[in-house]
Amino acid sequence: MFFKRRLQNNTRPPVKNVNKFINNSSHKQKKYICLMVIPSYSSGKTRTLRIPRAILYSVIIGIFVVTAVLTGLQQRSNYFQRRAQDLEETLVVTEETFYEFRAYAEQVQDNLIETAIQIYEELNEREHYAQTALDQQARDHRTELEIILEQVDIIERKIREFDDDLQAAIAGLSSRAAIIPPVANLLQQLEESQAYLRTYSLIHTMHDETHVEEVGIGLMSVGAAASNVTSCSVQGYLQVLVDELAVQRKLMESFESYRIQMDLYLSNFPTLWPVSGKISSGFGWRRGPFGGGSEHHDGIDIPARTGTHIHAAGGGTVTFSGWRNGHGNTVIIDHGDGMSTLYAHNSRNIVTVGQRVSRGDVIAHVGSTGRSTGPHLHFEVHVNGRPVNPRPFMHEHL
Length: 398
What we know:
The protein has 398 residues and is an alpha+beta fold. The chain folds into three domains: 92 residues, no CATH class; 139 residues, no CATH class; 110 residues, Glucose Permease (Domain IIA). The chain is 51% helix and 19% strand. The strands form three sheets. Strands 5, 6, 7, 8, 9, 10, 11, 12 and 13 form a nine-stranded antiparallel β-sheet that branches. Strands 1-2 form a two-stranded antiparallel ribbon. Helix 4 runs antiparallel to helix 5. The protein starts with a helix and ends in a 10-residue tail after the last strand.
């Protein structure tokens, strides 16, 4: 309307107090942003709104931050909604599978009940027709029961044999644990796990009188009188065997889990004498073999004939095979877990860098290369890069 009136009247609207809208102070112009409001009719007053820049920028930044936060929260909410939907679908599928399995189990149970009823009815019919046939069938039934009891006794004996073998395997690990500290820690955890699982074993609690009454003591021997063996006792003891097999399976799974961890140390830990013989120079400070005062000996020396086989003290990966000043021909094996061994003064190295070796493998031949006074093996053990006394590690001979 305002512009239309201007065009019609062809007159310029009066501007009152123009100087009020012009701020000649340069420093105030920098601090404020002015908004001029011009009314659409000529008689209206023109108004000016001054907004500090800091406040305007703060409002703009605040709006941006709030928008970004709300957008992020919305995306996060959408993500969790999708996750919840996926979990709900998985739960529905699992529930359907469970109901299908339960329906199948109920069907099998019904079939078994029907079969048992049919057998019972058949026995009743035979009882009506011939007592002799029934007696013969009872005798056959007792014979079958004795066969079942024999099979139960065999299963029980196998369970005990399996348990004995498992205990023997753990005992065998105990002999190595004394010389390999990491294995000792794992073995302690294994024994605690085994002891915990055995609390669920019913075979090991058969001496409890209450439990014996529940499963039927007559089943412990095939020679028990058949009259003392009932169907309830058979079912009870069979359930005991099923539960015991489940416990034995868990015991073996626990053993295998810890054995896999122990194998890394059992196969790699350097417990083998690399060369047979007597130690001529031990670990620590000694008089220099070439004079010049005392020096620290970072390993041990084992004299042997030139060409004698040098064996890897433990399994690992060859990280060095070549010439080193002072040590001559040298082989270094990394055994993992921060542990490595060094074999020096060799007449010949027969392994290469990157090669995987096992405990007892021949890696070099005894010699007198480098700074040496005669044919011998200089053997070092390093833990986390620092030499330690090798003697406490050397427990096994070839």
